[in-house]
Amino acid sequence: MNHDHKIKSGWSFTGNNGDFRLEQPDRSSFLYFPLVNEGGMMSSVSPKLHGQVTSGHNTFLTPPLSVEDLHNSRASRNFWVYIAGQGAWSATGDSARQNAAVYGEAADESLLEAGLLWHKVTRENKELGLNAQITSFVPCGNDKVELMKVVLTNSGTKELTLTPTAAIPLYARSADDLRDHRHVTSLLNRIYTSAYGVEVQPALSFDERGHRVNHTSYGVFGAAEGGAQPVGFFPVQEEFIGEGGSLDWPEAVVRNLAPEIGEGGGRVKEGYEALGGLRFAEITLAPGQSHSYVVVLAIENDRIGVPVLMAKYGSTAAFDALLEENKTFWAEKVNTVEFHTGDHSADEWMKWVTLQPVLRRLYGNSFLPYHDYGRGGRGWRDLWQDCLALLIMEPADVRSLLLNNYAGVRIDGSNATIIGQQPGEFIADRNNIPRVWMDHGAWPFLTTMLYLDQSGDLDFLLQEQTYFRDSFMSRCKERDTSWEPAAGSSLRTAAGEVYTGTILEHILLQNLVPFFNVGEHNNILLEGADWNDGLDMAAQRGESVTFTAFYASNLLDLSRLLITLKERTGGDTLELAEEMTLLLDSLGESVDYESITAKHALLDRFYATAPNKVSGVRAQLKLEQVAEDLARKAEWIFAHLRRNEWVDSGHGDGWFNGYYNNDGERVEGEFAGGTRMTLTGQVFPLLGHAAAPEQIASIVSAVERNLFDDKIGYRLNSNFGGIQQNLGRAFGFAFGHKENGAMFSHMTVMYGNALYKRGFVKEGRKVLDSLYSLSADFEVSRMYPGIPEYINEQGRGMYTYLTGSASWMLLTMVTEVFGVKGKLGDLLLQPKLVKEQFDAEARASIKTIFAGRELKVVYTATGSAEYGEYQIHAVKLNGAEVTLQRVSEGVLISRSLLSALPEGQVHLLEVELA
């Protein structure tokens, strides 16, 4: 990702571990940084230490917030200093006086330094001669704890007498109580003070789940250098701020009032909004002298054991040791994959992209300021998308995750929409809203195929798994009145036993049912929506042409996989639930695929034979015949799409129509009001087999003409002009925002991936490069390193960190750009690097895991470094020449050769390109 132009970057990388710095970070709005651990502590922190601290939707330590609250709210992790003779100053920069001075002469100087999940802001006021450095992180491990270390330094020439006070509002309840019952729920607060701080344990949890006895406790504790306890506490917010005061100009600090509760605490307050208000002893600092404080924010399932907590976390020595441990933990996780190209900044940026799928696993789609729509948890699509990155980063865990995920498939080919907390836990829809996203069945096979290529584990296909069952049947068109929640959510046989089928059976079911579930133009029905959740208003007559292409490609790849299964295992039969043989129509009574009514009739027969239960009898089918049936269906769709859904632009190029709306009208093409085109409609035909080779250049030309915008990259769609009540809510958004014509990273990266797959490397690189350039141009994007969910019409990066596009970016860089990929367990090397990606020594390298071994693959271009002009000439493994097995795509290295290598070390593959 090298560039001729120099990116004017507000932040710059320092060193080789993703660390970066940014001067005056508080001059940029909406910035926030994630702090999280595997134990469920989920925090976000802004340059002024706004943000939230939570362990879930119902357990917020600080007030829940949306991105607008980062600048509107006065609640933050504040640390005040009263300077004798000079008044109050906030070490976080969050005081009424400092906020007013942001554009003035007397503004503080500030510097942000951050790295893999640690955050440090240094703030100095030259006039006062005072410098504050605040480091924040969430320690790795299972404790729900966030730590802050504040170091105050006299940077002036005169002695300073300081009185420090930590002031962190304790919200201590569910996000649902933020507006509804806000005051009433404060009456539940039981506030305790101890030797080190303030703890709140509300008497009840008072939310839609019922008024239950609450056990969760929330606390803010602190100690000064040398372990000194606070000298007093302000546990009640209103008494701290005073009449007419506020959190950004509190009376207790401004007038340097004595604490409400003295040293040692021990008092209980009830029924008020709580504050982690900790007053530390007055100190005098000579010029150059420093004094430090550690503040611990904790959430516990019961009353907090404060002495144990402070012994573990409450000293500068513990803080410093845990910070190093945390840096190592995240570096090891991220450095599982490392890139070295001719552009050091791009390589460092990729570390943040590599981290993003892990963040998405930990946060779900919620709990960061832009993700204010999330109540926690992940969706069906997320389960499979996130596994793409895990296959590269944490491959050991993926097999069991995939196996568990398949338990969410229904016998009608749809799937559960409520995902439980535990792997493989699916919950019958608690809102009783029948909804089917038509794309859901397509993703599992894509992820499973990547797993099979990486592992060669074909036995996985024959593993047994249960099916999900609730009251919805026939893709949510009917209700099963006989189903009771007490019956559980596993599909049963007619005899009442839990039914299991192979993973292959689950995959076939998910891809065969949609084939028959078509609309009036013989494309698969859109139902509740597809990948683009914004296309949610065409459930009756809408069709998703784009995912029809995806399902067809799956059918063809499945057909080929069955033949491979036969060759590899020697078996020539396949066991399926007898009801499913109907869907393999060419094995019995063939259906005319041109006939929509015939397809519907067959589907109705299938629903009737498997009405939320199965007989339990299995049919033995010939692998070859099943493979032929799948290929026949795929080829029919490809011919149908190329014949009926190609849009001729009149400009010498063309593209695929992606959708029909709820009036049964084609969505894309040249209209009187202008050109209507979607990027999604092109990506899936390109990603699979639907776009014929001769159509690719034409699609690329049309995308460049209609969707590429220098300022924001590749738009998700052109301007359709006005809301589309017959298609979806997305068109109610302003054009250039979110799903209506913004640069939506997920689809952009998939477009880049598809172009690489199809050999359009120069074009694919332009796509990925545009994403990097736009994200890393801080002056415009105003975001920290990484990929945003989308870039709006002004070029600002939106919804940072939590986006499935990061998984696709990582996957594309590893398997397509660097060409390190699996082919049913063997390693396939197929580099598609371009000249700018090689360094000054004509090298480019990647470190990654394959076959359970850490490999460093170093490509050296001994001749031309231009893609298309080189091929793999020789390969050495740990210095020894490897006999090359050439295939059409590149060079294969057998898994057995790699598996024989010792574990626990990095093995060097030197690849000469000539």
Give the helices and strands, then pairings:
Layout: E1 11-13, E2 20-23, E3 33-36, E4 42-45, E5 53-54, H1 69-72, E6 78-83, E7 87-90, H2 96-100, E8 109-115, E9 118-125, E10 130-137, E11 145-154, E12 160-170, H3 182-186, E13 190-193, E14 197-200, E15 204-207, E16 210-213, E17 217-224, E18 232-236, H4 237-241, H5 251-254, E19 261-262, E20 268-270, E21 274-279, E22 283-285, E23 290-300, H6 306-313, H7 316-334, E24 338-340, H8 344-363, H9 380-393, H10 398-405, E25 418-419, E26 426-427, H11 443-455, E27 464-466, E28 472-473, E29 478-479, E30 500-502, H12 503-516, E31 543-544, H13 545-569, E32 573-577, H14 596-609, E33 618-622, H15 623-644, E34 646-648, E35 654-656, E36 659-660, E37 669-671, E38 674-676, H16 680-687, H17 693-706, E39 708-709, E40 713-714, E41 743-744, H18 745-757, H19 761-776, H20 778-781, E42 788-791, E43 797-800, H21 805-817, E44 820-823, E45 826-829, E46 843-850, E47 853-861, E48 872-877, E49 880-881, E50 885-886, E51 891-893, H22 895-899, E52 906-913
Parallel strand pairs: 47-52
Antiparallel strand pairs: 1-2, 2-8, 3-4, 4-5, 6-7, 6-12, 8-9, 9-10, 10-11, 11-23, 12-21, 12-22, 13-14, 13-20, 14-17, 15-16, 17-23, 18-19, 18-21, 24-46, 25-26, 27-30, 28-29, 31-36, 32-33, 34-35, 37-38, 39-40, 41-42, 42-43, 44-45, 45-51, 46-47, 48-49, 48-52, 50-51
Helix pairs in contact: 8-9, 8-21, 9-10, 9-11, 9-21, 12-13, 13-15, 13-16, 16-18, 18-19, 18-21
Number of helices: 22
End-to-end Cα distance, whole Å, is 22 Å
Counted beta strands: 52
Beta-strand percentage?
A: 15-25%
Major beta sheet, strand line-up: 1-2-8-9-10-11-23-17-14-13-20
Average pLDDT works out at: 95
The CATH topology of the domain at 18-300 corresponds to Beta-galactosidase, Chain A, domain 5
GO biological process, one term: carbohydrate metabolic process
Domain Glycosyl hydrolase 94 catalytic: 500-819
Domain Glycosyl hydrolase 94 supersandwich: 121-314
Keywords: Glycosyltransferase, Transferase
